[in-house]
Design a protein that fits this description.
Length: about 725
């Protein structure tokens, strides 16, 4: 049928249409087709000196808006319609492309470690480690290797909070000149189970219960404790998980561990076992449970924000990589099996040797492209590093690659920029969804003559598995030493400070109080009796039950060559006294001395502390000795987000704050969470109003700015805590 020419519009209709079009344009003044003057991305695209530079970094500064296939888009506000008030047209490929892409923006979240946060940086080798490994990134003094690190919680979903009681993931990807090497570790050196066969059961037990989808990001529920109380091998890990280790204050003050025993292999093909340790230069720092629970509401992004803001402020998180290297002959003599991931190697048996440092100095440009799409895997090894026969590790070698196939949509996820190795990959693998590489030539097989035999095998320079001799029958079972589930749990308990032991007791009490089935509580207590009767008694007291009989043991004789290991206590690593990046609140109100406020601000800022002056409301006000212009309000900044608090001099200011419940609550929480508090001059009267009594023994109750900063460097005075807390 011939297309009907549209009737010429009458003049008045055309005028109405033009006016309507103008009105639409006026409503969207930013709908400009002029190039933007600057691009937001441009300032952030300066990678650190050794950071991995992605060729695919995209910066839209100065660019025109286009479709995915490059056609310039004239109007990004309106869909194509038959008349201003008419129906939208199917032909609008621009609208359909935009909506279709949006519909597919989400990928499956990680089954565990879904919530995480990452950063770029570098690893720097101290001295060549060629005696023990031929790994290239450990081969020369000062050699730098780019890294990407992702920290995570384990149980919570992607949108959950940062600070539940949970193990933290600490996964590092080294982009070495011989390919990527990943240490996919945790902030706890042991694990719940000994064999990968039990991993899906463990994860199903800890995740929200399947019938009602609760609780989120928490192990304090029946299914978790049901499972672990039936799996006595989890006892050692439970001790760590109920301790302050599971409540790190932030990522930059926690340790990391490779957990399993790995192998190092040198150029002479000699092999030794190794355990990987990350030790934070800022020292270890953990939180109080009450504080972390409040933080989940106050700032669910607390740890993510801390990492981001520290890096933006130039306070670069730093760790030392330490190795525990030991021979197979040594391992044979240990009372425990080094292939059992529920055991650690006490530092008294094998010291930790620092071999390099890692500095995180650049935030990602794009959370999804980098932090979400990064794919870690224990199978990413480089020549000079190899596996041990740990059966938990064996399952992981399969699981990580396998899970990425569905999470990242196919076998080419290694080409996503954050996952791609520095050196170009060369092999005969071809095609598949999302293939980026354009392989040239007609040869995709080996051996070949048409391609000159390329790519050819690396021979002795390539990765060669350590030829460990094998014997034994094909069996399902465990070696004998795996049966000792308690010796190292007891070692951990005995190595804690009294306040750390008190926190462990509270952790067990809290979790088991949430458990609703009495038999599960009882079974857990019977397990704890094998760790320490003292611990079991204190937990039982809190639960209001009698102590049950100890759980029968396969190997009742405690086996450990070390009775106490001080390194297992968080107090062993106070840090280097650096207070940079710590956050301190200065509470003010009309009547606070402005000179005292300015002086304390200046002194704290000089030490690199992030200071926030908080008042009852915003807006500058005239006060004693000058004007005070608060940064924010008490209402908006809960106490738990700060590492310490200062009340400047000024009697009237202290009195005004004392009349304010928020100020008193603020101080009570600072006190309860064992943080440094300073009352300068008359400011100290506010402390008394909050029920905080003067105590000469409490080194974290300061009366000068200098003593406050010194206390801040020591993190917290846990000795102050009483059970139940007085405030
Ligand atoms: Fe795992 C993720 C650490 C046992 C299977 N694991 C994952 C991540 C970390 C760990 C840090 C997050 C990586 C990231 O940031 O993307 N996992 C550990 C440690 C373990 C451990 C220290 C014990 C020593 N894991 C473990 C076992 C299995 C898995 C025994 C399976 C047999 N883990 C996975 C996984 C994940 C994962 C399902 C989820 C998302 C991913 O791998 O990429 O494959």
């Amino acid at each position: 049928m011939a297309r009907r020419a549209s009737p010429k519009p009458k003049n008045d209709a055309a005028a109405r249409k033009a006016a309507a079009t103008q009105a639409v344009a006026a409503a969207f003044p930013y709908n400009s087709n002029k190039p933007a003057e600057f691009g937001e991305g441009s300032a952030r695209q300066k990678p650190g000196a050794t950071a991995k530079v992605d060729p695919s970094l995209t910066d839209s500064g100065g660019q025109v808006l286009t479709t995915n296939f490059g056609a310039p888009i004239a109007d990004n506000q309106n869909s194509l319609k038959a008349g201003l008030r008419g129906p939208a047209l199917l032909e609008d490929f621009i609208l359909r492309e935009k909506i279709t892409h949006f519909d597919h923006e989400r990928i499956p979240e990680r089954i565990v470690h879904a919530r995480g946060s990452g950063a770029h940086g570098y690893f720097e080798c101290y001295e060549p480690q060629t005696k023990v490994t031929r790994a290239s990134f450990l081969s020369a003094k000062g050699k730098r290797t780019p890294v990407f690190v992702r920290f995570s919680t384990v149980a919570g979903e992607r949108g959950s909070a940062d600070t539940p009681r949970d193990v933290r993931g600490f996964a590092t990807k080294f982009y070495t000149d011989e390919g990527n090497f990943d240490i996919v570790g945790n902030n706890i050196p042991v694990f719940f189970i000994q064999d990968a066969m039990k991993f899906p059961d463990l994860v199903h037990a800890v995740k929200p219960e399947p019938h009602n989808g609760m609780p989120q990001a928490a192990s304090a529920h029946d299914t978790f404790w049901d499972f672990v109380s039936l799996m006595p091998e989890s006892t050692h890990m439970l001790m760590w998980a109920m301790s302050d280790r599971a409540l790190p204050r932030n990522f930059r003050t926690m340790q990391g561990f490779g957990v399993h025993t790995f192998r190092l292999v040198n150029a002479k093909d000699e092999s030794r076992f190794v355990k990987f340790h990350w030790n934070p230069v800022f020292g270890t720092h953990s939180m109080d449970w009450d504080e972390s629970a409040k933080l989940m509401g106050a700032d669910p992004d607390f740890q993510r924000r801390d990492l981001w803001e520290s890096i933006e402020a130039g306070v670069f998180p730093e760790w030392e990589l330490g190795l525990q290297v030991f021979t197979e002959a040594q391992a044979e003599k240990f009372s425990f099996d080094v292939l059992d991931a529920t055991k650690l190697v006490p530092e008294e048996l094998v010291p930790v040797t620092p071999v390099g440092r890692m500095v995180l100095d650049r935030n990602p440009d794009n959370f999804f492209a980098e932090t979400e799409q990064v794919a870690f895997g224990v199978q990413n090894l480089v020549p000079g590093i190899d596996f041990s026969n740990d059966p938990l590790l064996a399952g992981r070698i399969h699981s990580y690659f396998d899970t990425q196939l569905s999470r990242l949509g196919g076998p080419n996820f290694h080409e996503i920029p954050i996952n791609a190795p520095l050196a170009q990959a060369h092999n005969n693998q071809r095609d598949g969804i999302g293939r980026q590489a354009i392989h040239r030539g007609r040869v995709a097989y080996e051996p070949n003559s048409l391609g000159g035999g390329c790519p050819f095998q690396a021979g002795s320079a390539g990765f060669r598995s350590f030829p460990q001799p094998m014997d034994g029958d094909k069996v399902r079972g465990k070696p004998e030493k795996f049966a000792d589930h308690y010796s190292q749990a007891t070692l951990f308990w005995n190595s804690q400070q009294p306040y750390e032991q008190a926190h462990i007791v509270r952790g067990f009490r809290f979790e088991l109080t949430k458990v609703t089935v009495p038999a599960i509580r009882e079974r857990t207590l019977s397990m704890l009796r094998n760790v320490s009767d003292d611990l079991a008694k204190q937990v039982a007291y809190g639960l209001g039950v009698a102590l049950p009989k100890a759980m029968p043991q396969v190997s009742p004789t405690p086996r450990t060559e070390v009775k106490v290991s001080p390194a297992l206590s968080l107090s062993a690593r106070p840090g280097n006294g650096d207070v940079r990046g710590r956050c301190v609140a200065v509470l003010v109100a009309p009547g606070t001395d402005a000179r005292s406020t300015d002086a304390v601000k200046a002194a704290l800022a000089k030490s690199g502390v992030v200071v926030k002056v908080l008042a009852p409301r915003l807006g500058a006000f005239k006060s004693v000795g000058g004007t005070i212009d608060p940064d924010s309000t008490l209402e908006t900044n809960p106490s738990v987000t700060f590492d310490g608090v200062v009340i400047p001099d000024g009697a009237d200011g202290a009195e005004a704050l004392a009349a304010l419940g928020q100020a008193l609550e603020f101080l009570k929480d600072q006190f309860r969470h064992a943080k440094p508090i300073a009352g300068l001059g008359a400011g100290a009267t506010l402390l008394a109003a909050a029920g905080i009594e003067e105590d000469k023994k409490d080194w974290a109750l300061a009366s000068t700015t200098a003593s406050f900063i010194a206390a801040l460097a020591r993190h917290r005075n846990w000795e102050r805590q009483a059970d139940p807390p007085p405030v």
